[in-house]
Design a protein that fits this description.
Two copies of one chain form a homodimer.
Chain A lengths: L12 E2 L3 H10 L4 E2 L2 E2 L12 E10 L3 E8 L1 E6 L11 E4 L2 E10 L6 E5 L10 E3 L6 E2 L20 E5 L3 E5 L2 E17 L7 E6 L2 H5 L7 E4 L8 E3 L4 E10 L8 E8 L7 E4 L2 H17 L16 H12 L5 H12 L12 H18 L2 H6 L1 H12 L28 E2 H21 L4 H20 E2 L4 E7 L2 E6 L1 H9 L5 H12 L10 H13 L3 H17 L38 H9 L2 E3 L6 E4 L8 E8 L2 E8 L2 E6 L3 E8 L2 E7 L6 E4 L7
Parallel strand pairs in A: 26-30
Antiparallel strand pairs in A: 1-9, 2-3, 4-8, 4-10, 5-7, 5-9, 6-8, 10-11, 12-19, 13-14, 14-17, 14-18, 14-19, 15-16, 15-18, 20-27, 21-23, 22-23, 23-24, 25-26, 27-28, 28-29, 29-32, 30-31
Chain lengths: ~675, ~675
C-alpha cells in the first residue's frame, strides 16, 4: 500500500544550476594538447560552496529520517540556528516546522538527500546561497536518486569494446578500433616492466605521427600495479599506437571502455538511397559521441561547450534522442553565473544563439518551467547585450569581442547584419519568456526593440539591386558584399516577405557567384533555409555530395570542416596543426536535423508539439520512412511516390501534402493508428 | 654583485583578491556550535579556478627558469596556444615574447611562481580569469615568496603554551590556561585506550557545563596513534575540561599550541593610572587574538568577518600594529565578488561601513594603489546601495535587509538617520577615490549626492527643541526619539556646525535622559565623539568604570557586551544561550583607539601621515607616555602636567597644546629628535 501522503521518492537536491556548472568546470579542463592541459578560454563559473536548504513540513507523528549530504551539514528548526544537529539518523518533531539544512562543500557540489516515510528531498525544497533569495532546488530525479551515489559521483556509462585489428610494428603496436570512438584505453595481460608511449589518432596518419598527433599518454613503468591497466583519462580516437620503452613489454590484448551518455534512439530514418542512409547513421553516431555531460563541439578537440555549436545540437537532438536533460544542462552551463562581463565563449554571436536555444527549447518541449527558471539570467545577459549597442541601436564587436559568424573569408568589423538578425530573434525570445513569467513591464519593451531592429535591418542592409541583405556596415559605410549568412537567418526566422524570400532564394542562396560555405556549421543553416523554400531536391544532392564526400574518404564520423577540393593530408590540417581538425564534430551531424525536419517533415506549431505539422518530402528519393519524437510521443512516417502513411502517439498533428498540384491537410489521430493518403507524386529525374 | 637588471626576488602571484577570498571561504565555516558546523550566513564568494598569467619580457639570451604552480599549468608564447609546455625547468627563448601561463586549481587558489636570472613572478605580471579583463597579479611579497610553500599552505604562527593549573576531577581534568587564549589543545604522554570528551570555556563555568558549553570535541579511542595528540581544530578558551570515557586513560601533561598572527607591537601606552594601563594591555591582547587571517568579531563566536566590527578593528590597528596586510585582506574578503545582490553580512549599515573603512585606510596609510584597485568594486556596491534608495533619496531596509545600528531597544524601520549619515560618508569616500583614479565623470555625481543628502539629513532629522538628530522616519512620520547614534556619527564626520556640536554634546551625548549604550561596539563611537568635543576627563572615567568593570569580574579579554548592572551568570548569556556571549570580542578593545587618537592624540591630517597632528591630553592623568605608528615611522609622546615631549621619524607633525588658556603649535622634526614644550596644566581634582 502506497501512502498517499508520501511523495513518490526522494532524490538528491542542490542549488539550482550548481551541479551543472560544477560538471562544466570539470569537463572544461579535460582537453589536452600533447599531454598538456588546455583549459577553456572563457571564465569558468563555480558552484556555491555554502548553501542552505529549507522545507516546511507538517507531521502528525515524530518521524525518523535518514540524512545524507555531500559535504558537511547541520540541521536546525524554525530559525533557531544555535541548536544544530548533524546525525545521519534523526527524529523530526511532529507539528509544523521549518526544517533548515546548511551544507558546505568547497570541492564538490553541496547536495542533500533526506528520506523518511513522508519527508523526502525533491525539487519542492527551497535553497539559498545566503543571498536573501530562495529558489526551488535543482535535482535530476530519474538519475540522481541513490543516497549512496552523490551527484558529484555521476559518471557516464561505459561498455568494453575490442579493436578490429592489431598490427605488430617494429617497436610496438598499431591498434584499429574500426571507427571513431571515445573512452579509456585498456591494456590487458601486461608482462614485462616498461614505460609506455601511447599515440592516438582520429586517422591512422595521426596515430602514426608521434611528433604531431594531438593526443598522447606517457606512462611510467611503475604505473602498472595489476596485469590489466585502464588509462585514467578518456581520449577520442580510432587508431592507437602503443610503444613500450623496453622490448620485453608484452600484452595479451588491447581493448577500450567506450564511454557514452545513455540515450533513447527515438528518431529513425531509412530511404531508398543507401548513401543517404549511411549519412544518417554516421550523423547519428557523430552526434551521440558528442552528446555527453553536455553537447560538446568535438570529442578530440575542443571537448568544450560552445554556444553556437550547441545551438545546432539542440535542434539535432529534437530529431533524434529528444534528451531534455543534456539540453538543459548545456543551456545552464553555457550561461554560467552573473555578472556577465564578456560574451558567451568570448563570441558576440554565441551570446545570441543562447537565446535562440531557449526559444527552440520551449517550442520543441513546451517545458515552461525550465525557461521560466532561466528568465533572470536571460534578463542579465540581454542587459549586457543591449548595453553594448552602438548609437544606431545595433550590436558590434567592441574591445576584444570576437565576432565569429563562420570560419570564412569575411569582414566582421562594425555592424554585421547577421548579428542584428540574431539579436532580433533574441529580443523575440525575451518577449516570449517575459510573457511566460508574467513580466508585463519588460515584455512590450522587448517587443518594441525587436520590431524597431527588424525594420532597421531591412532599411539599412537590404540591397534591392542584389536582392538580398549585405554583410555589414563599418564606420557608416556599407560593405555591399552579399553573403548567405544574414539572408538564411532572416529567411528561417520569417523576417522576409514572399517577394524577398524568392529573391533571396534565387539571387543569394542558389547563386554560384555568392561566396560558398565550407563549414558543416553554416551549411546547417544554408541547407535548412533552402528546404524552407522548397529546394529539397537540391539539398538532397548537396547532402549526398558533401557528407557522402566524407564517407568516400573513409570517414566514420563527420568533420569540423570539409572542403571537397582538398586532398590527402590537407583534410587533417587546421589551426596550423597537421592534425588540428576534429574528425568528429557535432556540427558535422546536421543531416539529422535536415532529414527530420524537412524530409520526414515534422515541426512543432505550438510549444511541446501540442500541435504540429507533418509535411514529408521525398526530394528525389523513391521512398523514405522513419520516426520523429514529438514530446512524449512519436510520429512515424512511411512515404513513397504513391502514398504517405503517418501515425502518432501525441498531440494534434496535421499531415500536409500535395496532390495534383493542390495542397491538402489531414488530421493525424494521436492513438497510434495509421492514416494513409495517396499522392501520386511524379519522380523528377 | 647584484644584477641590476634583475628584479629583487620572485614571489607567488594569483588572481587579485582570490587568495584572500579563498582564505575567507575557508575560515567562514570554522565556527562550530557544540561540534556542528555553523557557516557564515551570507554568500561566500569563491576563487576563480582557471586563470591565465601574462608577462612580456625581452631577453638577450635564452634563460632557464623554474616554474612552480599550485595547480595544473601550461605555458605558451605569443598567443600560440596550441604549443603548450608544462615542464618544471624550461628554457625561455631570447628576444621579446609574451609568456602566458594557464593555471587551474578548483580546490585551492591557482598560483604561480617562476624564477630565473631575470624573469621572476611579481605583482607586475598580469592575470585574467578569461573574462577579457587583465589585472595586476595579487601577491604578498614579504610572506609568500617560498616556492615550496604555496599560498594555500599559508598558516598563522604557533607557539606552545602551558596551563597555569590542572585540577583532577572525579572523571577527568579541569585545565586553566590562566587567560583567554586560542589554538590547538595538546595531550601529551597518553596511556590507556579511551574515547574523550573535551569541553571548552571562556569562563570556568562554561567549561564546567557539559550540557551548554559552546565548544566541544569528541574523540574516538582510535584517534590517538601516537602518545602525543594535537587536536585538529582551533578553539577559543581559557578553561578546558577533559573527560575520558574510560578511567584507565592517563595523560602526562596538557598543553596547547597558541596560534597567532605575527604582528609588530608598534603602539604603546603607559600612564600614571595602573587600571588604565591594564585596560590598554587587555585591549591589546583582545585585539591581537581577533587579528588573524582577517579581523574577526570574536574568537569563540562568530569567528567571522563582519564589516561593522572590522571597521573598528581597522581604526584600532592604526594605533597598535599598523598591519596593512590584515586590513587589506579584510577589506577584500568583505567585499567578495560581484554581483552584489544583498548587503554585506546581510546588514544595510555594514555595506556602508565598508566604504568608511576604505576612507580611513587611505587617510591613515596613503596607499592609493590599494584603494584604486578596489574602485570598480566600490562602484558596483555603491550602485547597489543607490538602487535601494526610496523616493526620498534615502536608504531604508527593504525586503529582508537587516538594519542593525546596535544591539539595543531601537526601532529601525523606515529611514534611519544613522544610515543616511553613513551613506553620506560613503558617497564622500566614492568622490575621494573617484578623484584618485581620475574618474572625472562620476566624481561630481558622488559629490552632489553627498551634499544633497547631508542637507536633507539636517532638514528632516534635526530637532531644534531636543537639540539633536532624531532616530528615524517611518511611513512619513518622524520617530522623534533622539538617540545617540546619528548624533555621534554626524559629529565625528564633521556634519554639524559649532552650535549643533555644542547642543549635541550637552543635550544628547551627556544627557542621562537619552537612552544609554551598552555594547562596547557603540561605546566606541560614543566615547570617540565625546573626545572630539573635549570631554577627555569624562571619557577617561567611563573607560575606567566600564572596561575596569570587566577587569574587576576577572576578564582577561574584553567582551562582546557588558552591562554593569548584570550579575553572575547573566554576564555569560546572550542570544538565548547560557554561554552565548563572546568574552573576547574585537569591538571590546576600543580603548586602543580612544587612547591612541585622543589621549596620545595622534591623527593624520593628510593621507599616509604626510602631515599630522599630535594633541596629547591627560584627562586627569598625572602623566602618560606612549607611541603611535605614523605610516613607516613612529611618534613618541611623553607628557605630564608640566611638559610634553614628542619625537617622530616620519612626516610633518604638528604638536598642538595649550598653555595659559591659549593654543600653540610646534613643528615636530622627523629625524627622531625630541622636542619639549612646557604647559603647566593644572590637574583638576
Amino acid at each position: 500500500m502506497k501512502n498517499v501522503l508520501a511523495k513518490e521518492s526522494a532524490c538528491w537536491i542542490w542549488y539550482p544550476g550548481d551541479w551543472e556548472i560544477w560538471q562544466h568546470e570539470q569537463i572544461s579542463i579535460r582537453r589536452k594538447m600533447r599531454g598538456v592541459i588546455f583549459p577553456a578560454f572563457w571564465r569558468l563559473d563555480r558552484h556555491y560552496s555554502s548553501v542552505v536548504f529549507s522545507y516546511t513540513y507538517e507531521l502528525e507523528q515524530d518521524e525518523e529520517v535518514t540524512i545524507t549530504a555531500d559535504g558537511h551539514f547541520s540541521v536546525y528548526f524554525d530559525g533557531r540556528d544555535n541548536e544544530r544537529y548533524n546525525q545521519t539518523k534523526m527524529m523530526l518533531p511532529r507539528g509544523k516546522h521549518e526544517l533548515m539544512v546548511a551544507v558546505y562543500n568547497d570541492i564538490k557540489v553541496p547536495a542533500l538527500f533526506i528520506e523518511g516515510a513522508h519527508i523526502k528531498t525533491n525539487e519542492s525544497w527551497k535553497v539559498s546561497c545566503y543571498d536573501k533569495q530562495w529558489h526551488c532546488a535543482g535535482s535530476w530525479e530519474e538519475m540522481l536518486n541513490d543516497p549512496t551515489v552523490p551527484p558529484s559521483e555521476y559518471r557516464l556509462a561505459t561498455i568494453p569494446k575490442l579493436p578490429v585489428n592489431i598490427e605488430k610494428k617494429e617497436d610496438g603496436w598499431m591498434v584499429d578500433f574500426g571507427r571513431e570512438t571515445f573512452g579509456y584505453l585498456q591494456l590487458n595481460g601486461i608482462s614485462g616492466r616498461s614505460g609506455l608511449r601511447i599515440y592516438y589518432g582520429e586517422s591512422r596518419e595521426e596515430a602514426d605521427d608521434r611528433e604531431h598527433c594531438v593526443q598522447l599518454d606517457r606512462l611510467e613503468a611503475d604505473s602498472f600495479q595489476a596485469d590489466t591497466f585502464t588509462l585514467p583519462e578518456t581520449r577520442a580516437f580510432r587508431y592507437v599506437q602503443i610503444v613500450p620503452d623496453s622490448a620485453d613489454f608484452q600484452l595479451e590484448s588491447i581493448s577500450m571502455l567506450y564511454e557514452y551518455l545513455p540515450v533513447d534512439y527515438r528518431g529513425s530514418f531509412q530511404s531508398s538511397n543507401q548513401r543517404l542512409n549511411d549519412i544518417w547513421e554516421t550523423s547519428l553516431y557523430t552526434f551521440h559521441l558528442n552528446t555527453r555531460e553536455f553537447f560538446f563541439d568535438g570529442i578530440k578537440r575542443d571537448r568544450w561547450v560552445w554556444s553556437g555549436d550547441a545551438y545546432q545540437s539542440f535542434l539535432m537532438n529534437y530529431y533524434s534522442f529528444f534528451n531534455l536533460d543534456v539540453a538543459k544542462r548545456t543551456l545552464i552551463a553555457l550561461r554560467g553565473k552573473d555578472p556577465v562581463v564578456a560574451h558567451m565563449n568570448t563570441i558576440l554571436d554565441y551570446s545570441l544563439y543562447w537565446f535562440s536555444g531557449i526559444y527552440d527549447y520551449y517550442i520543441y518541449t513546451g517545458d515552461a518551467a525550465f525557461v521560466q527558471s532561466q528568465y533572470e539570467k536571460m534578463v542579465s545577459l540581454m542587459d549586457f547585450c543591449l548595453g553594448r549597442r552602438n548609437g544606431e541601436g545595433m550590436m558590434e564587436g567592441i574591445e576584444e569581442d570576437w565576432v565569429f559568424v563562420d570560419w570564412a573569408d569575411i569582414d566582421n568589423r562594425g555592424e554585421v547584419s547577421t548579428v542584428q538578425v540574431l539579436l532580433c530573434r533574441s529580443l523575440e525570445t525575451m518577449a516570449l519568456v517575459a510573457e511566460l513569467v508574467g513580466d508585463t513591464e519588460r515584455k512590450p519593451v522587448y517587443q518594441d526593440l525587436a520590431k524597431e531592429l527588424r525594420a532597421k535591418i531591412m532599411d539599412i542592409f537590404w540591397d534591392h539591386e542584389q536582392g538580398g541583405l549585405v554583410h555589414s556596415r563599418f564606420q557608416g559605410i556599407l560593405n555591399s558584399k552579399v553573403t548567405k549568412y544574414p539572408n538564411m537567418f532572416a529567411l528561417m526566422y520569417g523576417y522576409l516577405d514572399q517577394e524577398q524570400v524568392e529573391s533571396v532564394k534565387r539571387k543569394v542562396m542558389l547563386n554560384p557567384e555568392v561566396q560558398g560555405i565550407k563549414t558543416p556549421y553554416m551549411r546547417f543553416y544554408e541547407l535548412a533555409a533552402l528546404c524552407e523554400v522548397g529546394e529539397h531536391q537540391y539539398v538532397l544532392e548537396e547532402m549526398l555530395d558533401y557528407w557522402g564526400g566524407m564517407l568516400d574518404l573513409g570517414a566514420t564520423s563527420f568533420w569540423e570542416e570539409f572542403d571537397p577540393k582538398q586532398t590527402g593530408h590537407e583534410h587533417y590540417e587546421m589551426y596550423g596543426m597537421p592534425y588540428g581538425k576534429s574528425l568528429c564534430h557535432a556540427w558535422g551531424a546536421s543531416p539529422i536535423y535536415l532529414i527530420g525536419k524537412y524530409f520526414l517533415g515534422v515541426k512543432p506549431l505550438s510549444p511541446g508539439y501540442e500541435t504540429y505539422m507533418v509535411e514529408p518530402k521525398l526530394g528525389r528519393l523513391e521512398w523514405l520512412k522513419g520516426s520523429v519524437p514529438v514530446g512524449p510521443g512519436e510520429v512515424e512516417i512511411n512515404m513513397d511516390t504513391e502514398k504517405i502513411c503517418v501515425r502518432a502517439t501525441h498531440g494534434k498533428g496535421v499531415l500536409k501534402y500535395k496532390k495534383d498540384g493542390k495542397s491538402f491537410e489531414a488530421s493525424i489521430p494521436c492513438d497510434g493508428s495509421w492514416i494513409e493518403v495517396y499522392t501520386s507524386i511524379e519522380l523528377k529525374q
